[in-house]
Amino acid sequence: MRRALTDFILRGVFIVVIASLLAWLGAGDQARSRLVAATPPADYWYIGARACVKSPAMLALDTDDLRELQKPLRRIAKSPAPLAYMEPLIAQDDRWMAPLIECLLSDDESVARGAAATIQAIFERRRIDGDRGGSALATDGFNEPEVRAAIHENLAQWYRRNRRAIQRWGDGRFRRILDTNAF
Question: Same structural domain for residues 119 and 32?
Fold first, then answer.
């Protein structure tokens, strides 16, 4: 009698454990399908561009310059008429070019987009074109950190090669043809 009672209890516990396990596995499939269905939209902003930079040597910058740039860059990105906010940066493009290149790596979307727009405006003003007449700053896939890191690396290399010419922009002597093969 005791043995029959023990077998009955063990079978009941076994059935409950198996049923719980099956229910848990079924909930896992539903949760997994909900995760797959919840893919981010196409314009989702991914952070982590700084971690994707392959060359560890960043441009030597003053952190105060980067902090000072963030407010106007946010205004540029969010404004329907950003040129008014770009003008002070474009007027001193020799000072702001390196910090603008670094701001492309920002996790703040408005800062990175504002930096990209300002760099593009500076390139248009200086008549600097990218690869064979194309846009110097490609914005396809700009939401992806790898794309922003690649753009940063190309612009940083270009800046290092042309640093002396860029520093002369402030003197009004910018007629020297810059090397645009970096893009």
Answer: no
